[in-house]
Amino acid sequence: MNKFKTAMDPAQQNLQRLEDENKRLRRAVDELAILNDLALAISGSLDSEKIMRSIISKSIRALEAEQGDITLVAEDASNSQTLVRSMVSSSDHSPLHLNQNLLGWMQINKKPLMINEPENDQRFRNVKWEKSINSVLSAPLMTRSKLTGILTVYNKRSDKQNGFAESDQRLLSIIAAQSAQVVENARLYEEEQAYQFMRRELELASNIQKKMLPSSPPEIDRYAVAGTNVTAREVGGDYFDYIRMDEHRWALCLGDISGKGLPASLLMSNLQAILRGQTYHLVQPGEILKNANRQLYQSTNPDKFATLFLAILDTSANTLHYSSAGHEYPFLIRRDGTYLRLKTGGLPLGMMDGQEFEEEIVDLTVDDTLFVFSDGITDTINLDQQMFGEERLIELLLEGIETGSQPDKLIGAIVDACLSHSGKEQLFDDITAIALRRNE
User: Fold this and answer.
1) pLDDT tens across 365-411, in order?
2) 183, 72 contact by CB (below 8 A)
3) Which residues on adjacent β-strands are paired with residue 435?
4) What domains lie within the chain, and their CATH numbers?
5) pTM of the full predicted structure?
């Protein structure tokens, strides 16, 4: 009997080997079918959310898990931040959450992780797991040797006692490896689409803003006036305007909003509307600024404010009635080459409620020139970080007065000088100016 049993052992062993090989081949075929099914599901799509849900659903089904998720991470020198989280569940259980410690472990090790006894796993002995988690299987999504995400499934439904097997870990690793680049491509495509959308919105905002600024200077009896605005970005925070108040009076405004980009542009538009409304029924620049300050203070955050120079030109009296809200001091250059700095006023608009603004009246004689500017002119820097500065500005102004330059020529020469000074250096701030000259 023993001899017969011994004689059968090799046959049994061969049979066992055949059965094992058959199981291995069947498992390989199943894995290929799963991967083929997944490839068909995610190929051709650039919707990252749809792609991730397909990957998770296929993983849950293939590994007989209760839930799964993908967490995308962005790594920099200081921290890792969860950007997107997609989850799919095959049960009615409440959603499980990727443990932060597991996320940290994956960022360090960048290899598959299987946990079948969370509470007893020595790698996470100080971690408090959710009570509903019985087993965890996680695999890294690697793109060009960089961790871009983590694919995780929870709780083996078919074997809750033993949890996931080595074959499960192998299959999830293959799915993660095959999916990583697809997910990353979809994410990058969506980022590019969002960027292009933002660019179109900025271009639209820029066009709207340009139309809100004067397209050409007005004709003022016995005076010449010009203004310009060169934005450092698509949209800017500087503002200038000419507002006709009556037959003999014109309001000349130039403002600079704190900050840059769209927020500054929106505040600039708000300020323009406020000033146009005020100049229709008020004639004192200090009173106009007081009301504008109150409205701006009530409608903006404490960190937002605007500097502004407001002058009212009276062509019948040849006077300039002005007040400044913390703005760069304009130059009033006389025909003999001497000049004044117009300093009277108060604090920037929107900083404090109830502000009063002092005002002053100056006479304008023939060939006198007023030059109002934003600090984008004097603060223009070159590649050596050297500022354009006030000395260069004064030299250009005096040179223009000496040669009898009209406002448009004067402004053009100064803007050209600023751009030439900056060279290839990106403008840091908007360049804005108004020039007014009495010709008769």
Assistant:
1) 999 999 999 999 999 999 888 999 999 999 999 999 888 899 999 99
2) yes
3) 226, 371
4) 9-190 (3.30.450.40), 204-438 (3.60.40.10)
5) 0.63
